Structure formats: structure tokens, C-alpha cells
């Protein structure tokens, strides 16, 4: 028996959700019913439900109850800077990277604007799709300043570019600005990803900077709608409007 009843409730329901016994969209029993089932207080039940919500298992709707979320989606952090290899290790799922292009190209006017360089300057273009559990669901299009990253090849792109940059080139990658939008699927998306019938895609644009504030990378990371949820943590600062 668990020492804390709320942990017992949390573990019981999280296990039922993980095993699929409680499918996405299922409404949980009322607080009153769970209170009776576990012979505990409503305060304890609310504590357990809050813990389930905080860990992404349920969504609480005021006046309607608690509903099971689709945990098949993978959390992708809005803040923070994490490589696909690092994310894959945290997910614990089978993953594979497909490298389509690693090429030195002259920056177009639009790309020059994104990288804050002069048009025509040489930049590395890297195009990769990310396969998770047998489906290609992310398309990453990376651009790196050749003045910072002098050498790049398919072998490096197939493993981890950030590992190469930080351990091989000893670069100090510091922070990134991110922009998120939902856009129409392109021909390239359809060709390189397993999109099924989805007509829109989530696009995360990353502007990545070194410790000395030099922007050296611009990335478009394109995600299939049904497989990702973008998460962040926010704390209310009391006393401010």
C-alpha cells in the first residue's frame, strides 16, 4: 500500500492511461466517485488529479471533469535548446535520421536576412528527416555560417551536428530565439515526410547564437501536426499587472 493515497491514485490512473486501458478523450470518474473508490478525502483526489494534469496525462475542464490526453504525442520544449539526438535519448523510442542534403550554397536574399549576413555569402544547407517509430514526422532544414562551421559532411549530419560543433569544434552554443507557426504543407514536406492526409504542418524557426552573441545558425523544423505538443513552463509573478 502506498504511504500517500494521492500517489496511489496517480500511479493507478497513469498506468491505465499508459497501457491504453483509458483511451484519449475518455472522461475520468468524478472526484466524488474517486473519493469513494479510494476511501479518502476530496482534497487528496484533487491533489492526485492535479499531478496527473501536470504530467500531461489528463486535461481538467472546469464544470465538465477530467479527460485523458493523447500521450502518443511527444513533448517538444519551446524554451531550451536540445538536439534531436538528446531528445531521442529522452523519448526512449526507436529513431532514425535520413540525410538528404549537405551542401555549401550562396545565401539567397531571404536566407541572408534570416542569418543577418550579405546575400551570396556561403552557408551550409543541411536537409534531414527524423523518423520515429517507423514514420518520418520531422523535417529539419538547417543553415550554418561557413565562416563559423568550416567543414560539414553527411556522416556528421547523420549522427549529431551539435555534438560535432560542441565537442569537435569547441563552439560555445548559448541561446536561441524561436518562432512557431502553422503553415500549409509544401511539396517538399509531402515528398520527405509521412504526412498521410494532413494539409498543415507546425513550423518552428530557430535562430541560434554563440556565447559571443554571433548568430551562426538558422533552422526550419517542420513537424507533423498529430505527433507533437510544444510545452513550456510559466510561473505567475504576483503583484504585477
Automatic annotation (TrEMBL):
PROSITE patterns: HTH_GNTR. Residues 3-71 form the HTH gntR-type domain. InterPro entries: Bact_HTH_transcr_reg (IPR050679), Chorismate_lyase_/UTRA_dom_sf (IPR028978), TreR (IPR012770), Tscrpt_reg_HTH_GntR (IPR000524), UTRA (IPR011663), WH-like_DNA-bd_sf (IPR036388), WH_DNA-bd_sf (IPR036390). The keyword Zinc-finger does not apply. The keyword Lipid metabolism does not apply. SUPFAM superfamilies: Chorismate lyase-like (SSF64288), Winged helix' DNA-binding domain (SSF46785). CDD domains: WHTH_GntR (cd07377). Pfam families: GntR, UTRA. It comes from the Bacteria. Keywords: DNA-binding, Transcription, Transcription regulation. Gene3D superfamilies: Chorismate lyase-like, Winged helix-like DNA-binding domain superfamily/Winged helix DNA-binding domain. This is Trehalose operon repressor. The lineage of its organism: Bacteria, Bacillati, Bacillota, Bacilli, Bacillales.
Amino acid at each position: 500500500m502506498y504511504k500517500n493515497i494521492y500517489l496511489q491514485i496517480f500511479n493507478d490512473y497513469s498506468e491505465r492511461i499508459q497501457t491504453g486501458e483509458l483511451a484519449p478523450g475518455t472522461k475520468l470518474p468524478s472526484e466524488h466517485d474517486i473519493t469513494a473508490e479510494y476511501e479518502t478525502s476530496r482534497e487528496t483526489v484533487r491533489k492526485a488529479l492535479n499531478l496527473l494534469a501536470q504530467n500531461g496525462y489528463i486535461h481538467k475542464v472546469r464544470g465538465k471533469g477530467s479527460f485523458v490526453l493523447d500521450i502518443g504525442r511527444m513533448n517538444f520544449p519551446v524554451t531550451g535548446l536540445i538536439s534531436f539526438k538528446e531528445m531521442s535519448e529522452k523519448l526512449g523510442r526507436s529513431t532514425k535520421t535520413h540525410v538528404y542534403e549537405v551542401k555549401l550554397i550562396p545565401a539567397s536574399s531571404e536566407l541572408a536576412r534570416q542569418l543577418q549576413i550579405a546575400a551570396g555569402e556561403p552557408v551550409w544547407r543541411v536537409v534531414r528527416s527524423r523518423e520515429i517509430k517507423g514514420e518520418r514526422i520531422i523535417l529539419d532544414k538547417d543553415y550554418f555560417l561557413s565562416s563559423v562551421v568550416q567543414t560539414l559532411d553527411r556522416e556528421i549530419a547523420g549522427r549529431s551536428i551539435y555534438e560535432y560543433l560542441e565537442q569537435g569544434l569547441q563552439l560555445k552554443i548559448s541561446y536561441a530565439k524561436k518562432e512557431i507557426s502553422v503553415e500549409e504543407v509544401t511539396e517538399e514536406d509531402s515528398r520527405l515526410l509521412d504526412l498521410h492526409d494532413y494539409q498543415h504542418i507546425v513550423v518552428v524557426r530557430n535562430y541560434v547564437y554563440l556565447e559571443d552573441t554571433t548568430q551562426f545558425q538558422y533552422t526550419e523544423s517542420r513537424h507533423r501536426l498529430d505527433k507533437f505538443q510544444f510545452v513550456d513552463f510559466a510561473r505567475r509573478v504576483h503583484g504585477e499587472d
